[in-house]
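User:
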Amino acid sequence: MANSKLGIFLKKYRLDRGMKMREMAQGLDVTSPYLCSMESGGREPTDSFIKRLTRFMGGLPGGYNKIEFMRAVELSTSTFTIRLPKDTSDTVRQCVLEVSRALSAGSLTDDQCRAIMDALEQRSLPHEEHPDIRPSVH
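Assistant: Predicted structure:
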């Protein structure tokens, strides 16, 4: 069964770096049609492909563990739905939008995330129990 999550991850990784498919395929030592098939979810990744990909990306902590890598891909392509109460202020709505954009772009530092988490500790329900924040996989 092909993996569309990996395909989404590969295409985003390539486009975020301004690479053409041919360039990334050469770096992975695969053909452009093969990479295209991976990006479109038409192929299941082999262990060999995951090893090449991790080398190409600069490696992964802990080596070439396909299960851990695929879990990271799953998390990187997951989306979250946040339902705000109707009476939520424009300021809070704008804050949610900006944080969401920064998360999508990968531009938040660990320190910024800690500051956000510190600010959120004041709310009444812990994140895991909050009824309006549900991860969903698309």
